[in-house]
């Protein structure tokens, strides 16, 4: 029996400055009698910054999510889901996520939970979601994570420390709006850290053993766009913001056909044990990647220098043995990407001592 | 009011050698009680060449289409559609197109016609298809046209000579299977001519005025893959066939966000007036494109030389004035691509004399 990955795409995407203006007309088609209002999951930034019109109707709800301090937890998703369920008898006509990767992931998770029942943690894993979610729209306001294109939404379960997504075709957005006007106000550091997520998952995929011709093609194009942006004098012109938005979308499509490698598991370790945000975490991990990705290591730090970006350091300098053990455990658990990078015997290469040595460089 | 193109994607795609083996299991999910069998629209080549298992069931039908002599006509599509309608009371559970661009286009047209009624010519134009078609699967066995990814299916209406597609979101395949094993037997000339379709529509799009960041990114990647294939010693290795298949798919996605330019309208002229096949027609038109695409002209003829491919010539040497008038009319009718290439006053540039001069180079 031959098995090939059947890749699900975002059904419709729109690109261009001010394309968010089309959101009300997209939602209008979903506002049929009997259905509830639309639920907007927005990054808290938009609470005090009205940069676009949502075309709100009476039954719609706005939910502002806090993403600056922590990444999504299953508890938080469950709580939002309960609030929506308790607010009315009908399922919403649409879930609209407007924000960075965390906000989009929360929107994806809620869309699935509303039609499948149960708790968020029940669906962490592969292909556990049974029913299609509520019609969902993704509007990234930060480029790089690729969440707008992928079939996962990552959450941490605070009870067992597991950081894992609902990997399912049902997690893919039905509509994506790529509007580079929305990334105009992103702070420089964050723009770089998050933008680099696309670059990093593509170098991981291209260095891995699970390559395929379409993932490769999309990855090469993502790297080309990322380098155009981060080697240029002003990485945040409209043209560059649009390029980075496309890089994020294509990079998300690329990684959905393949696997990440060394960087993401180590970054997940930092995230679970030290609470480091995913994207800055990836950049911190790059401090220790010369051995595994030598050419890309050099390229990455050149772009850091060109843009004069601060990547935090000395994160793991004075940690206890217990913390290092936790870091080891929450890194080594990511078997698929580590096998993709190092092969079946990755545990013989990544001994606890070696993992500690790697973290000590961060 | 800001308007942006809302691009519909193929919902699911699969890539890899022998991925066609997954077709029976994909169809199994559509074989629900009450629905009719699956209709397989196959290129006539497969009548005597059994290269894969279709997992046929009793109620399924095989239709072999003749594509070597002519391109799809509305009459032919209508006739196939009538035959399917007369063969049973239920709509088929799926339409599967297996072949080159013409075969895929016929499958797309029939899928739409079965659920929308009427005749093929009723839907030639933009967004005239009202209902979603029958679930449709595209399996290209020739790379380049991009039909597996686009929202159109081109047919010629023999009554008015109009060569035009059903441009509609409903025309997009629900599932595509990209299996490079299926292009192993394509003759060298045809492999080159058709493969060049992807290269040509991307150079047209990148030189036009309707560019966008995602169409550009996909076009650049398509050009890169095409050049890797056609500059290499053996353009038909498995690796190169897989690359060209990806180039075709990405090129189709690229052109769906943009417009073609000079080559396609002139090639359509050859097609309507002289019956030239679309892809070899494009290559013939390239004989006269130095003035419009100088860099790409040079690159194209270099690839022709590397692969030692024969591009027909002297096609328009001894044509009557009447034929040249017909050629002018069936070229100049393609306003959108010609505007994309030359601007609003394209008719002042492409006078009947100029058009004749261009055709005389072919």
The shape of chain A is globular
CATH fold-level assignment of the largest domain in chain A: Dehydroquinate synthase-like, alpha domain
Helix content of chain A: 40-55%
Number of helices, where a helix is a run of at least 4 consecutive DSSP H or I residues of chain A: 13
Mean pLDDT of chain A: 94
Name of the CATH superfamily of the largest domain in chain A: Dehydroquinate synthase-like - alpha domain
Order of helices and strands of chain A: EEHEEHEHEEEEEHHHHHHHHHH
Descriptive report:
The structure is a homodimer of 362-residue chains. Chain A is α/β, with parallel strands linked by helices and 362 residues long. Chain A folds into 2 domains: 12-183, 3-Layer(aba) Sandwich (Rossmann fold), CATH 3.40.50.1970; 188-360, Dehydroquinate synthase-like, alpha domain (Up-down Bundle), CATH 1.20.1090.10. Chain A is 44% helix and 14% strand. In chain A, strands 2-10-7-5-3-4 form a 6-stranded parallel beta sheet. A 3-stranded mixed beta sheet of chain A has the order 6-9-8, covered by helices on one side. In chain A, α4 crosses α8 and α7 crosses α10. The mean pLDDT of chain A is 94. Chain A binds chain B through residues 1-16, 18-19, 21-22, 26, 169, 175, 178, 212-214, 217-218, 220-221, 224-225, 242-243, 245-247, 249-250, 257, and chain B through 1-16, 18-19, 21-22, 26, 169, 175, 178, 212-214, 217-218, 220-221, 224-225, 242-243, 245-247, 249-250, 257.
């Amino acid at each position: 029996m031959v098995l090939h990955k059947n890749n699900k795409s975002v059904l419709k995407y729109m690109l261009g400055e001010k394309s968010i203006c089309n959101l009300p007309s997209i939602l209008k088609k979903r506002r049929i009698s009997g259905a509830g209002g639309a639920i907007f999951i927005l990054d808290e930034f938009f609470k005090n910054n009205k940069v676009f019109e949502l075309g709100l109707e009476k039954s719609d709800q706005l939910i502002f999510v806090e993403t600056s301090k922590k990444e999504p937890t299953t508890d938080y998703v469950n709580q939002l889901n309960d609030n929506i369920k308790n607010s009315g008898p009908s399922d919403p006509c649409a879930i609209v996520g407007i924000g960075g990767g965390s906000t989009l992931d929360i929107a994806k998770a809620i869309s699935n939970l509303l039609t499948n029942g149960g708790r968020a943690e029940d669906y962490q894993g592969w292909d556990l979601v049974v029913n299609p979610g509520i019609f969902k729209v993704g509007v990234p306001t930060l480029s790089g994570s690729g969440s707008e294109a992928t079939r996962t939404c990552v959450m941490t379960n605070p009870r067992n420390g597991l950081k894992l997504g609902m990997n399912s075709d049902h997690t893919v957005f039905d509509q994506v709006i790529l509007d580079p006007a929305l990334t105009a106000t992103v702070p420089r550091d964050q723009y770089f850290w998050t933008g680099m997520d696309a670059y990093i998952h593509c170098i991981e995929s291209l260095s891995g053993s699970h390559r395929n011709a379409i993932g490769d093609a999309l990855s090469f194009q993502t790297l080309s766009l990322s380098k155009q942006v981060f080697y240029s004098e002003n990485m945040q012109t409209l043209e560059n913001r649009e390029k980075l938005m496309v890089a994020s979308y294509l990079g998300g499509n690329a990684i959905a056909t393949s696997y990440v490698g060394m960087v993401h598991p180590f970054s997940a370790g930092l995230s679970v044990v030290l609470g480091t945000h995913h994207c800055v975490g990836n950049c911190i991990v790059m401090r220790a990647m010369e051995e595994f990705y030598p050419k890309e290591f050099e390229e990455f730090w050149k772009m850091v220098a060109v843009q004069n970006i601060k990547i935090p350091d000395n994160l793991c300098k004075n940690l206890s043995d217990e913390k290092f053990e936790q870091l080891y455990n929450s890194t080594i658990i990511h078997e698929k990407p580590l096998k993709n990078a190092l092969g079946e015997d990755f545990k013989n290469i990544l001994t606890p001592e070696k993992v500690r040595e790697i973290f000590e460089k961060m």
